[in-house]
């Protein structure tokens, strides 16, 4: 089946996820009005999938943009696939619903299409999103993630969310949920950093074997936020192989990087706050990579994470595992 901007992948619970979405994370120095405008441009351009999270601190603006485009007839609510994420201070079962309700209030929607556990690492429960002790160290907590998952299942059964999944989980953490007694719903997806320098081939194979969709963030490299990213890391979109293939196809390096993921069966989140780039990225469906192109791009993998998470001493830190 040919990929188009309206293509969707059927999730293991029967709901369908659009194969390309707009990512909305931005470093703190970006004004939130830029996010609001970007979401409006995306919906006007044909995007149907918007990805945000409580910790991004911009769900009010994202929701305002979605509701404005519903109100003016650009889109219908049922055509917009909205993803949000349960932050790490809401893992305790009694806090899961509170985290969801905060997102629903901020975004002013009656339901979330996809709600995912943002990160397996947990902090002290509460509304303080980055709790620290007197010395500035994060205050950890360690709820059994299966108990968190049961509360996520309850949210799905309440009708407040259509589908539930996870993010940044390794295969062992996924297996732990999949093997839990009384499991009502499998995670529909695992959203992870995935790009040409970190192609996640083993994790993708594992997810496909369990009918879990891999959703890729950081596909174009990263925002190079100095808080999270090694500034000496190579710039993905400047890679010579990527640029040679883009030149051959008469398209942008970003389109090739996205298309490579799409042809592997991965859902792609592309992030830009520039109207021209937002529209350009959706033209990825005009590009078709050959088998040789795909092999050359596969060869760029370095197992390199751009995002450097700082909670490596937490018992559930996921990236000590190779996949």
Automatic annotation (TrEMBL):
**SUPFAM superfamilies per the record?**
NAD(P)-linked oxidoreductase
Site features described as Lowers pKa of active site Tyr, chain residue numbers: 85
Give the residues annotated as active site: 56
**Family matches, as Gene3D superfamilies:** NADP-dependent oxidoreductase domain
* Alphabetic keyword roster: Acetylation, Eye lens protein
- The lineage's top-level taxon is Eukaryota
One of the entry's Gene Ontology molecular-function terms is: structural constituent of eye lens
Q: Does the keyword Acetylation apply?
A: yes
Residues that bind substrate, according to the entry?
118
Using the record's annotation, list all stretches that form the NADP-dependent oxidoreductase domain: 20-301
Q: Which family is this protein grouped under?
A: Belongs to the aldo/keto reductase family.
What name has this protein been given in UniProt?
Rho crystallin
Query: What organism is listed for this UniProt entry?
Result: Eleutherodactylus coqui
